[in-house]
Amino acid sequence: MIDYAKLATAxxxxxxxxxxVLLIILLAIIVFAKMRGDYSSLVATFESAxxxxxxxMDKVKDIHEQELLARDELIKRYSERLTELEIKxxxxxEELLKEYTKRKEAYVIAFGENGEGLKKDIENYLGIxxxxx
Length: 133
Known about the structure:
This protein is mostly helical.
């Protein structure tokens, strides 16, 4: 059988003789355990930051895609509106040309080919007399 009293005495004398080495080993184990815990905490923090960064990038990409779609929609509406305005401008231009032609014909009919009627109308309106150059 094992004599526990003798074992305890031998252990106590070993610890008294080599206490510095045992303390260094114990402190090394504690430092290793602490470093291991800090490293695990650091890795967890890094992974959390990486996930957070990825989520933020995904949100930014979604917002960017929405902005691109909105921009494309605005460009499409602008192009359609521009086409409508160009057609309206062309129609208005044709209408003005027709109106100009009608007025020109009316003036030619009203004032004659040589402009004598126009001269008389201007003289009466302004109260002046036309003098040939």
